[in-house]
Amino acid sequence: MVQKFNRKSIYTIGFTYNTSAGGTIEPQPNLGGRARFLHGIVITIPDANKNDVEEISLNINSEQVIKTVPVQSYLPNVNSYKEAQFYYLGKILTGADTTDLLIKATNTHSFGITFYLSDTV
What we know:
Layout: H1 2-6, E1 11-19, E2 24-25, E3 37-44, E4 55-60, E5 63-70, E6 87-92, E7 99-104, E8 109-118
Antiparallel strand pairs: 1-8, 2-7, 3-6, 3-8, 4-5, 4-7
């Protein structure tokens, strides 16, 4: 499995955003020129908001990786982690990737997303 093979070379990049009640934010996280493989993600929100009905979408290089999925699908305080402590996505990157994130929030709160990357495929 790719995760086991690359486990020593995995690194993380994290971003924090603030959502507003009933609003949508569209940040464009920069994964950096070193990234060649996206192993997965983890999303964190305050425990008080873990039952909010919120959605996330993620496009990388205009390709839909996550399409309108409930945020709860990627929350470690709601679900059990998958192997290697992140939710596997498995996407090859070029190092010059454009990343578009869409978050639809129910309430105002902080929103963190951690990308698990490696510089080898």
